[in-house]
Amino acid sequence: MKLEEITRPSERSEKPSVPKPLELVIEPSGVLRLDLRELWHYRELFYFFAWRDIKVRYKQTALGVVWAMFAPFVTVVVFTVFFNRVAHIKSPNAIPYAIFSYTGLLFWNFFSAAVGSTSTSMMTNKAVVSKVYFPRLIAPFSATIVNMVDFGFAFVVYAALFLFYGITPGLAGVLLLLPMLALTFIAATGLGLFFGALNVRYRDVGFIVPFMISTLLFLTPVIYPVSLVPESYQWILYLNPVAGVIQTMRAGALHQGAIPWSMLGISVTSLVCMFTFGLLYFVRQERSFADYL
Amino acid sequence: MTPIIEINGLSKAYVISHQRDAAYDSLRDDIANILRRPFQPHITQGAARETVWALDDVSFDVQQGEIFGVIGANGAGKSTLLKILSRITFPTKGRAVLHGSVGSLLEVGTGFHPELTGRENIFLNGAILGIRKQEIAKKFDEIVAFSEVDRFLDTPVKFYSSGMYVRLAFAVAAHLEPDILIVDEVLSVGDTAFQKKSLGKMQQETQEGGRTVLFVSHNMGAVSSLCDRGILLSEGRIAYEGDIGAVVNHYLTAVGSADYTGDLTDHPNRARGFDPLLTSFDIETDNGVILYGQPVTLRIGYHFPEAITVPQFSVKFLNAQGVVAFTVVSDYQPNNIPPRLQGNGSVACRIHSLPLLPGNYTVNLRLWQPGAKLDDIENVARVTVEWMDRKPDQIHWDSTMGIVYVDAAWSMLSAT
Prior knowledge:
The structure holds two protein chains of two kinds. By secondary structure, chain A is mainly alpha-helical. Chain A has one domain (35-292). Helix content of chain A is 67%, strand content 2%. Chain A has helices spanning 36-41, 43-57, 61-86, 97-119, 121-124, 126-129, 138-143, 145-165, 171-201, 205-216, 234-238, 241-254, 261-285, 289-292, and strands at residues 2-4, 23-26. In chain A, strands 1-2 form a two-stranded antiparallel sheet. The longest helix of chain A is centred in the middle third of the chain and has 31 residues, at 171-201. The model of chain A is unreliable at 1-21 (pLDDT under 50). Chain B is of the alpha+beta class. In chain B, strands 5-6-7-3-8-9 form a six-stranded mixed beta sheet, with helices on both faces. Chains A and B meet through strand 2, helix 2, helix 6, helix 13 and helix 14 of A and helix 1, helix 2, strand 4 and helix 3 of B. Strand 2 (23-26) of chain A pairs antiparallel with strand 4 of chain B, so a sheet runs across the interface.
């Protein structure tokens, strides 16, 4: 979409309004176009979508908030009982297994939820996408905001675990928390954009994504430490961006070794590739979304 | 002056899949293609797919301040055209230039979230249409007043009636002050009073605000009294363009307004157990169009292997709600049909002036003999009645005011 500002004819200048695109040229799509200025113009829609999702999610406020904390807590109890006590997976450096696995779970849950909500965002907003124009990218990105709110509540449990076990989080961990969240976000939206665009055309993708996510959990060091994998193969594990994030947080916050910068580099490279590919694919496909919905 | 909307050779192709179970494409089937060309639109192959041109080389201009009508039968390409101009979908070929901001109202409650209240939805709707929050806040009271839903403003819209939905949606769209307002058939959902108000608002907006409206409707009354010019679309092409009166006439003539199969011998709607004594049904009008107040001739063919005494041909017109509008019966009305009929033949019924209000009607056809039903076919024809010509006040009539329109004149009798 080409939006060109041209001078507004003088007889209409009495209308006090935000500058609007005054010439719209509608043509068959040719090249990839990512109009950042237009995205900025629609930023309020981003807030509204996010606010709408949050409002609907936490409608029954008490249960919504409690659930956001209760669910990861129960998961980590189950992990601890089965993987630590029964299967004898150990947390390095004598850090309690519960907080060790929760570090992984915190980021993993955000990642998987964000992939889920971005990849279905076109379908959940179907009624709007097929009837109104707006920059389609708004929908998948705003869909992750509610996952971030969930992350916030789950983080409360994380903080409580530190208090409970009397562990002082490492400074690096505190400083790296938000950057790591950002990396997880980029990785998740990259995947989500790709599958979201694919899902519009191919409804079977809707079944593939949950399966892929639940499989990927076992390829991510959530319930086991990276050290369980032979050192020469660890780089393969780090191709999964969440692995880099989790290991960095474990090193930074839980004092489990040095921050694996070079391995984090592999993860970052991988997630940049994923994001770029996902974004380009989405932008390439977005003009045809309404035809398939 | 440059037109505010310039449309040049606009075309849109859809690929229709003829596979048995292909409601949607499956990734499994297409994965090979995707892997080969991830950034290319899917290339179709095989005979299972067919390209359909929903819009085929459409060009026209609209001037600022016009209310431009787009009419045509279902599937003529009206919706596709509006979707392209609203940037929901994109053309396959051609180009459209819009000099101004565009607001479109394509369906009831678009972008309304059922869980959110009316108030919240006004802001959400505005944001979807690209309008700033403070802009909406400024117009908020006006929107609420226009929509008449103020009492339910803090009720989730899932409890709204469809009429309330439309009112709110139209109020938001109409108050956004786009340079170009695109309005699809939505208004037909609201009640009459609100329809009138909306049409009035559109007229006012174009006259005072210099706005341009692209209006799509099946209500020929509304189209002809509201629009200045228009186009008639037929199978994706412009069949006629020009003054709205002429466009409407072309539509009425071209589309034809009765839908029926003449031959009744094996009619699926014949009641069980009846022999096909009635063999054909045909509506003949003076110019092929069924218009209010004009003469209409019904023709019924029969095949009576055995002689029938006092045959009674009966034709019943029902409106869309199934209410009987009127019935004509041969034996009870002036006729010259002999009291004993045998063999093949046909009879005609001349209705001198059709009293039906414009709308859709169905026709039931029966053959009686005093005390016995001999043949019975329901829904033998569907008939669309239209106004004859452009009388602005006639748009105020709708189905809530009756089934028939009665010619009447009013005058002063006394005054003090």
